[in-house]
Each structure stands twice: as structure tokens, then as C-alpha cells.
Amino acid sequence: MSPRESAAGEDRGVSRRAVLAFGGAALAGTLLAPGIRLIEIAGAQVARPAGEPASGKVRWGMLIDTTRCVPDCDKCVQACNTENGLSGGRAPTDPQWIRKIEIRLERTGRTVYAPVMCQHCAQPPCVDVCPTGASFKRADGIVLVDRHTCIGCRYCMMACPYKARSFVHEPLHDQKADVPRGKGCVESCTMCVHRIDKGLTPACVQACPEGVFVFGDLNDPGSAIARRVREIASSQIRPDLALDTAVRYHGI
Amino acid sequence: MSLYGVRVLLAALMLTGVAAALAAGGADGAAASRVPRPQLTVDRGTQCVEPPERMRLIHPDLLRHQRDRTVRDGERGAKASLNACVQCHAGKPGSPAPGTVAGHPQAFCESCHAYAAVRLDCFECHQARVGAAGGAR
Amino acid sequence: MNRAAPISRPDRSFYAVAGFALALLVVGLLAAHRMEAGGHVVTGMNNSIVWGVPHVFAIFLIVAASGVLNVASIGSVFGNPVYKTRARLSGLLCLAMLAGGLMVLMLDLGRPERLVVAATHYNFRSVFAWNVFLYSGMFAIVAVYLWTLMEQRMNRHAKSAGLVAFVWRLVLTTGTGSIFGFLVARQGFGSALLAPMFILMSFAWGLAVFYIAQSVIYAWNGMRLPDAIHRRMRNLLGIFVASVLYMVAAQHLTNLYFARQVAFERFALLEGGVYPALFWFGYVLLGSLLPLVLIYAPRLGGQRASLWAALLVVAGAFCQLYAFIIGGQAFPLEMFPGATVRSTFLDGEVAPYVPSWPEFALGIGGVGAALLITVIGVRVLDFLPHDEDADAGRDSARAGVPAREAAATPGVPAAASR
User: Fold this and answer.
1) A45 confidence band (pLDDT: 50, 70, 90)
2) From CA A252, how far away is CA A103, in angstroms rounded?
3) Domain boundaries, position A171
4) Per-position DSSP letters for C22-78, written without gaps between them
5) Interface of B with A in 21-80 (CB under 8 A)
6) C380 lies within 8 A of chain A by CB
7) What is the CATH number of the domain that holds C335?
8) Would you say residue C309 has pLDDT above 60?
9) Chain A within 8 Å of C114 (Cβ-Cβ)?
10) For residue range C38-61, what is the model confidence (pLDDT) as tens digits?
11) Which pLDDT score is estimated for B105?
12) Is residue C326 in a domain?
């Protein structure tokens, strides 16, 4: 570039080179950013090697940003149903592992939407009350039902403060191979444990188009979710119960 | 009827019942029985987890032990994973029970279990067919 | 000495009653089969109301079973001779109702074939797991207790066995109340009051059931209850009914004092439809106040009035349990205080519940099982109270004559006390 042109560019405040450089950088950034995110996520979890048990050093959690959750969208629910082989029915006897709740605050009139599923508490009441120990917390914090041991007494359903658990009221067919489920047992959101063990994210997290969910290892200070919960305010549902849930909400 | 008479009648009824059951069972015997002997062919040449004679004995314990390790401890990819068994033992296309290990009298698991009269309830929850979505070990 | 039970009715009526009980039991088993084969979708229970009519029956039977043993405890532990002769019948009723209640609970499980799992895998933080031990232990202890009562050589151990049974059943009823008391999530349940309330409820219901069973058995065998005994039992029932009413009032009044509980109380006591109706008319009016009137009003107070009072107490118990168990689940969980919520999973809405016939049938099957065990037991072994023993015991204690000699005339007890 000749000195005359550069001088002319400086007079106008911005040079073509600067514009091209900036535009190129912005374009590259736009193209690469999702990739960076993916790499970041993939780097955060890899598939666990075969035969290795879940580790207590990890604590899987979710941050749900309700300010981004929009009405008339239930992609997270659909994704969960598809991934886990749920019928998607809404009768009182149909299982729902995740549902969107419309919350209208009475005093202020403000309405928020929040997807609610098993909160994967650190002190789960469902685990306390299960007589056979079928309801249990895995080492990495995921609360599950061992359906080989569940006798279907439904006491955990009485105990859960979040109404997270469902009971299978009828014989099932066409279960997903990764999600065995059957009549007479209690079930709830597994945080897609079969996907997590392969290094993927839960189906709801993957499916949300609005970026409501952040998923990751709460115990890793460098993970996206750990950084995010340090940055923005978040809370548990029913904090008065002191259950230390792994699912936190921003904006309620 | 006196108490003695009641006892005699009950005993007679029980003996008749037992005799009838024995007769029915015995009459079939080696001839065409209601449940055919299973004919198991595994088309994939490699041995599975253990030799077949041992597998017949220990497969329930293998599965039961492994399921706890998978569900409770989170261990994946084990040799005795039920999904892996299904992938291998499901009938080949063209066989009487293609693509499945249960739900058909000649399917791999069901044929033996029906013959031995041992209830098979794994597949009330687990997927018995290959090719259904997923299949992670 | 094997005294024959004074049965004066022909055998036909025994077979009729036993047949009726067996029919009830069979209907219950058919319902259980239907539920197991089709899944719980055939019942009215759903993901919001997870415990329904079968649990109402089961909890009544279990709580009343532990309470009916009270009659024996008053005899063995506190040494009252009138109640001592009733200890055997009380023990039998306890075993029978416990069996019936547990049968209903176990058959209602989503996977009843996994009972062996329940018996071999225990999570000791769960009061349910403790209950498995408490309930099965109860069978053994009451069986041993009955043995000490009925086997002459073991009679001297009856007091210790009775004491063990008494303490055990207090722990058991505490465990039953704690099933609900430990549920922190539910506004209708999580309360330390529930354990002692269940104990008092067991006293009231157990005595009511005992009185009804005793009246029926006496009527059928041409025996007559001495008025003194009737008055004692009736007054005791009145005290128990009043104390349960007191506990219920304390619970609701405390709840009303907490602002965050007011919404639930409004639902349970005023606006909840069937639940306040059952609570006020079924439990308070018919199940508590009317029996108290029947018991304490000076012009009433005959044995028939007391029988009606006992029957009403039992009916009131069912109403109370329905409003308590099912009403407590119908009220939506409050996850977001100060907000109105809506979702596809009935958040923020009162859950619907329409009981179905398999649920009632299963519950009645449990009653049938209890009835069958009682009827066969009373027929086969010497369970009936012998009031002349009690009278002889009292008189001989005054006169210094051993009771057995004083009551040695066989076979004509009814005439003596008429």
C-alpha cells in the first residue's frame, strides 16, 4: 500500500486493509466459533475407557439459563423422548422425564419458562427412602434407578420434591437398546448416562436451539459450566431443602 | 363328613393330581414333546465369553454380576454386556428368528429357556433385537 | 388342660363365613393378577397419585393390627385380668390383620415377583427397609407370645413376651407413621407429629376392631359380654378417639400457623372437594364426634350403641386415611413458592384420582384374608375370651383360692356369666 493511500485511509479513520483484516477475522471467527465450542465440549468429556468405573472426581451438572428459554418450544422434551424411547404421551400415567414449566411470579407478573428434570441432588431424598437401594447415586453424581432391584413400591416418587420420577404403568415394547426400561419399575432422567459414558452430552442439551443448557463437570474449575456458574447468578429449585442439586437455574 | 374322612379325601385328591401330572409328562417323554429341543447354531465363528458348556452353567451369574458393574459402577464395554450378547447371538437373516434373541420360539435365548422352563424376563426391559437404535456396550 | 371352645352354632355357619372370606380373598387375588398382567394402568393410580385405595386398606389393616394387640398388652404388661383373657383373641386378630395388610401392599408392588429382592437387599436409611424387619418380626413375636399364652408350661413367660410384643409394636407403628413423617417434600406429610399420631390411631382403631370382632363372636356363640367389661372397653375407646382428634387438631392448627402451609390447609380443609368432605363428615363427624356421643351420652351407652360407635370409628378411619394419603398427594408440590406454574406434568394442578375396581378388590381381598385367618383360628384353637376365668381370677385372688380350681366346671361358661 502506498503512503498516499495509507495516509488517505487514516484521514477517513479506517483503512481498507483494516476493514479486510477485521472482516476476515470476524468471518473466520464466526465460522470457527461453533467448532471451538464443540472442541471445547469434546475436550471436556471423552468416552470413558472400557471397564473403567465412573469416577468420584467428576460431578456432572447442568446450568439452565431460563432467560433464553422461549415459550412454544419443547425441543428438549422431544429429544429426550426420542433418545430414551418414551412414548411422548401426556396422560397422567405416561412417563415424562423432562417437562417445561411455565412459571408466573405472582407479585411481579413476570413469566419464565424452565425445563425441569431430575435434579440429581447430592443428598437425594429418593435414595434415602428406597427400601432395596435401587435408587442410588453413581460415583459421578448421577442419580439413577437400578431397575434390576427396583420392586416398584413408588416410595421414591412420594419423596421427590421435584416430581422427577415416573412409574411405568404398562408393558413396554420397542425399548431403545441403550435405555432398558420396563413395566413395574420407577424411572427418571438419567442425564443420558449412556451418552455421557460415550463422551457425548445429554440429548436435551444437544437439541436446544436457544443455548439454554450448559452441561459439564462441576468439579473441573476449567470446564465451561464451572466458569459460567462463577460468572452468573444461579440457584437450585427449593434451596430451603438443602439438597445440593447438580442442576442449577439462572433467571428464576 | 368326619375330620378323618376329610383328610382321606384331600390325600386322595392330591395323589390323583400328582399321578395325572406324571402321566402327562411321562407320556411325551422322548417322543414329540410340547417344547422342541433347542438347536442352537452360532454363525459367528469366534468363541464368545467362555466355552459353551461353561456358558450354559454360568451365564446367569455372569450377566447378574456384570449388570451391577455396568449400572452401579458405570463400567462399559464388558465382554458379558447384554447388548453384546444380543448383537452376536441374534439370528442371521433367513434363520427362523432373524435379528432377535427372544420373541420367537426358536430365538437363541428363548428356545433354551422355554425348553428348560426357566422364565426369561430380561427382555421385558432390554431390547432383544439388533438394529434397534443404540446398541452401546 | 384343653378346654373346648364353647361353639354352639352348627358347622354350616362356619363354612358360610369362611367361604365368604375366601371369596373376598379370591376376588382380591384376581384383581392383583389383573394389575400384574396389565400394569398399573388398569388402576386409577398415576404418576401424581402413586398410592391409592389399596394403600388406604393396607395402612388401616397394619395400624389396626398393631393396635389390636394393645388389648393383650393391657392384660400381660399391665396385669389387668379382664384383658388377660382377651389376649389370645387379640393376638390372633393382630396376626390376621397384619397378614391381610401386608398381602395388599406386596401385591400392589410394581414387581411383586421381586419380593425376594426386597427381602435380601436393604437400604437401612429407608424406613421401608426397617419396616420389612419390623413387620416380619412382629409375626414371629406375636406367634411366640401366643404360644406363651396358650401353652400351660410357658404361661409364666407370657409377661415378658407381652412386653417384647408391646415395645415392638410401638416401634412398628412409629415406623408406619414415619413413612409419611419423613417425607420432607410433601406439605401434607413431613411432620414429626405423625409417628405419635399413628400410635394413638392404632390404639383407637385396634380397640374398635377388637370390640367389633368380640361382639360378633359373642353373638354367634350365644355368649354375653358382662356389662363391667363392656363399660371399661367403651370408655377406653372414647379416650382413644378423643386423643386422635386432639392430635389431628394439633397438626392442622400448627400448619395453619405457617404461612407457607396455608395453601395446603385450605385445600385439605376447605376447597379440595372430596378430601375436606371425607375429613369433616367422614372422619370428624361420623368417625369421632358421633362415636363419642354414643359412648358418653348418659341415655345411650348400651352394648349396641358401643358396637355402632366402633363401626363408625372404623368407617371414619377409612375416610381419614383416604383424605390423608390421597389428599396429601393430590395437592401439587410447591417447587416455586410465590409463583403459579403450569406444565404437561400436572405441575401446579390438583392431581385427578378416580379409584378403580381392582384397587377396591385388592383392598377387600386383604380384609378377606384377615377374616379367613380369624375365623379358622377361632374355630380350630381356643382363642375365645373366658370371662369366668377373669371373674374367678378376681374372686379367687380375694379368697386366696387358685383360679384354676375355682373355674373348674367345664363347658357351661355362658350360663355362669349370664
Assistant:
1) low
2) 8
3) 16-250
4) HHHHHHHHHHHHHHHHH-GGGSS--SS--S-HHHHHHHHHHHHHHHHHHHHHHHHTT
5) 64, 67-69, 71-78
6) no
7) 1.20.1630.10
8) yes
9) yes
10) 999 999 999 999 999 999 999 999
11) 85
12) yes
Q: How many domains does chain A have?
A: 1
> What residues of chain B lie within 8 A of the CB of A146, using their CB?
68, 71-72
| Residue A101: CATH number of its domain | 3.30.70.20
Predicted confidence band of residue B62 (pLDDT cuts 50, 70, 90): confident
Beta bridge partners of A215: A62
Domain of residue C127 covers 11-352+363-388
- Which stretches within C182-226 are classed as H helix? 194-220
Q: Is the Cβ of C186 closer than 8 Å to some Cβ of chain A? A: yes
User: pTM value?
Assistant: 0.85
Does A140 sit within 8 Å of B75, measured CB to CB? no
Q: Who contacts B10 (Cβ-Cβ below 8 Å, separation ≥6)?
A: none
Reference A142, options B74, B75, B81; nearest CA is: B74
Tell me how many domains chain C contains.
1
pLDDT band at C336 (very low <50, low <70, confident <90, very high): very high
The distance of A74 to chain B (nearest Cα, Å) reads 22
Name the β-bridge partners of A62.
A215, A247
Question: What confidence tens digit (pLDDT) does each residue in C169-221 have?
Answer: 999 999 999 999 999 899 999 899 999 999 999 999 999 999 999 999 888 88
With CB atoms and an 8 Å threshold, state whether C50 touches A167: yes
For strand A166-167 and strand A186-187, is the pairing parallel, antiparallel, or unpaired?
antiparallel
Which of A54, A138, A175 has the CB atom closest to B125's CB atom?
A: A175
- Taking alpha carbons only, the member of B124, C273, C182, C207 closest to residue A155 is C182
Mean pLDDT comparison of B81-90, C6-15, C271-280, highest-scoring range: C271-280
